[in-house]
Amino acid sequence: MTTITIIGSGNMATAIGTRAAKHGHTVELMSRNTEKAQALADQIGSRATVGTFGAKPAGDIVLLAVLYAGAVDVVEHYGEALAGKILVDITNPFNADASGVVTTPGNSVAQQIAVAAPEGAHVVKAFNTIFGGVIAEDKPVDVFFAGDSAEAKARVAAFLESLDMRALDAGALEMAHALEWAGILLVGLANNGAGFDIALGAAVL
Amino acid sequence: MTTITIIGSGNMATAIGTRAAKHGHTVELMSRNTEKAQALADQIGSRATVGTFGAKPAGDIVLLAVLYAGAVDVVEHYGEALAGKILVDITNPFNADASGVVTTPGNSVAQQIAVAAPEGAHVVKAFNTIFGGVIAEDKPVDVFFAGDSAEAKARVAAFLESLDMRALDAGALEMAHALEWAGILLVGLANNGAGFDIALGAAVL
């Protein structure tokens, strides 16, 4: 059981925070909107706390549960406060009709965050191929992740497994772009008959 | 049970042809290398036949089981012989180290094939998120597909289901690019711990 920090107070922050608390983790919430963060902390219960937006997070694992367009700004705003942290990018940089992504190969949001992050921080892409509603259901699901630091990836994988998720390593951080496209695929499947109660995964045969 | 035509005589042609024959379909093989096609037909058995490369295929569903770089050339070579056919693009346009694809959004191989194909032909992307070895094992697996013709997609979905595969519609043909990246994701997972006996899928919860 660890302390994890979630920056954000929207649907994904709610879903991941609730599931993490349910599995015994201490959750710290940080948001520009402190009232919203406090309301979410109250909703999550389990000793969830609210930190000051921009201050040093309590958790070693920091989930950036903000919209993709604001993720780099948030990391720059925190600056050195994120030194040594594991930054988990969960964003989906979809275009307007979710037919594609607004990023390009080599320039995924996760890679942009890695450039903006302070020294000693490590970025891991995860959680973007699973709907918030499915996370909230607390059922076993697969979660893909990618990153350049083996140690950071091992920490994130352990966290995922503790949430009753199967953590599947997709490779180096450059694979974050493939995961961004996997987010598009997930929405495409959901919109074309599979519905939104699905999660991408890898059947191991 | 239908007749399907496979253009190609490599690993994917072997895997899909063998599985199709096992499930009662009549398989026609076409290859520039007629000897190789004949050897594969003999191996598949089940009344598999060899057609003339470039001639009108016997099947309504024509699988382009060739390397991505040659797919458009093959379609142009066939020309009007493919009129009215359902062309199934199974290619993976990987770059040299499988860290990305050589195509760009809106210009997936499937979309390039659609431009090159004669009038009345319909392109469906499928089979590129599953390893040949897994297809050959004949176990139930998920197969994603995408295309612009509802009728062609329904025909391909029925074919997939007849092979004991669950056919999952990802949307319009523009989604083929997301599927190309899903191919990269599949290989990334395989190379980073999951092994090659896997298939991408969507858990329906």
From TrEMBL, chains A, B:
GO MF, one example: oxidoreductase activity
Entry keyword Oxidoreductase: yes
Pfam families documented for this protein: F420_oxidored
Domain Pyrroline-5-carboxylate reductase catalytic N-terminal, first and last residues per copy: 3-93
InterPro entries registered for this protein in UniProt: NAD(P)-bd_dom_sf (IPR036291), P5C_Rdtase_cat_N (IPR028939), STEAP_metalloreductase (IPR051267)
Keywords, sorted A to Z: Oxidoreductase
Protein name: NADP oxidoreductase
Provenance organism: Cryobacterium frigoriphilum
